[in-house]
């Protein structure tokens, strides 16, 4: 299990003041910046791309940037995110023709690679590529929008993913994304997650620090 990490999803930040928002949430104790890329094709919403990632780096953001690709196809955009300073790049297996090749593209470019599983997508392919994966991201909502409710069945899937990761003996983060808040973060951690994406739960409050502290207090149990 990796040390716990809080990864605010900037999807719920104020895009008109994005640099300041990211600064503020990092100063409030966040560990990783979760960066949601939606293409209005793989998911029914349209957000931000490599230019914005690069702009955050130029603005001075040094924290890891965790790029969650909700785009199809994925290979074409991987190079742009590598150049833009992405630290992690994760994609949905059904959004690429060749999962292993897409993972290799990310790793060859020097970023950490991950696979994202929708609530009803099986973890089956994971066992064939576990040696090329640095992060497993389980969606606990259907991707496309912030502010949805956590799907409880994801807890069973987290336990399944945790067992696979532990058996592999590798250093792999197990991230959860969707509907995470102060009330449910502890049960999510108990099911095996170590990295917690939270968008509306953090950016929906005026005091980011108090939410992040409350989450850490729950994790400390
Ligand atoms: C949804 C995105 C999430 C989203 C989470 O497709 O991948 O990262 O921002 O938002 P909350 O925490 O509000 O569910
Ligand atoms: Zn996400």
Features:
221 residues, alpha/beta, TIM Barrel, eight-stranded parallel sheet, 9 helices, 37% helix, binds D-xylitol-5-phosphate
Describe the secondary-structure layout.
Layout: E1 5-8, H1 18-27, E2 33-38, H2 50-59, E3 65-70, H3 75-83, E4 88-91, H4 99-108, E5 112-117, H5 126-129, E6 135-139, H6 154-168, E7 173-177, H7 185-190, E8 195-198, H8 200-203, H9 208-220
Parallel strand pairs: 1-8, 2-3, 3-4, 4-5, 5-6, 6-7, 7-8
Q: In CATH, what is the class?
A: Alpha Beta
Order of helices and strands: EHEHEHEHEHEHEHEHH
Q: Structural class, judged by helices and strands?
A: alpha/beta
The number of E-state strands comes to: 8
Number of domains: 1
Main-sheet strand order equals 1-8-7-6-5-4-3-2
Please describe the biggest sheet, giving its number of strands, its sense, and whether it closes into a barrel.
Answer: 8 strands, parallel
By DSSP (H or I, 4+ residues per run), the number of helices equals 9
Report mean pLDDT, rounded to a whole number. 98
* Computed Rg: 16 Å
Strand content is: 15-25%
Termini separation (Å)?
Answer: 16 Å
Helix share bin: 25-40%
Please name the CATH architecture. Alpha-Beta Barrel
Name the bound molecules. Answer: D-xylitol-5-phosphate, zinc ion
What is the overall silhouette?
Answer: globular
CATH topology: TIM Barrel
Which stretches of 5+ consecutive residues score pLDDT under 50? none
Look at the structure and name the CATH superfamily.
Aldolase class I
């Amino acid at each position: 299990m990796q040390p716990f990490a809080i990864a605010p999803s900037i999807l719920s930040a104020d895009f008109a003041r994005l640099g300041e928002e990211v600064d503020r949430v990092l100063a409030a104790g966040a560990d990783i910046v979760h960066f949601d890329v939606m293409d209005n094709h793989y998911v029914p919403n349209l957000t931000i791309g490599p230019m914005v990632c690069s702009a955050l780096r130029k603005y001075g953001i040094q924290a890891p940037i965790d790029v969650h690709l909700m785009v199809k196809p994925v290979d074409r955009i991987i190079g742009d995110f590598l150049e833009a300073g992405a630290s992690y790049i994760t994609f949905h297996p059904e959004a690429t023709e060749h999962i292993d090749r897409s993972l290799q593209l990310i790793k060859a470019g020097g970023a950490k690679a991950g696979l994202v599983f929708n609530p009803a997508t099986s973890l089956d392919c994971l066992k064939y590529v576990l040696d090329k994966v640095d992060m497993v991201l389980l969606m606990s909502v259907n991707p496309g929008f912030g502010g949805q409710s956590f799907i409880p069945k994801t807890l069973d899937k987290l336990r399944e993913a945790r067992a696979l990761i532990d058996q592999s003996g590798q250093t792999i983060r197990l991230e959860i994304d969707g509907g995470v808040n102060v009330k449910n973060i502890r049960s999510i951690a108990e099911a095996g997650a170590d990295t917690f994406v939270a968008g509306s739960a953090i950016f929906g409050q005026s005091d980011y620090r108090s939410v992040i502290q409350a989450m850490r207090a729950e994790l400390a149990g």
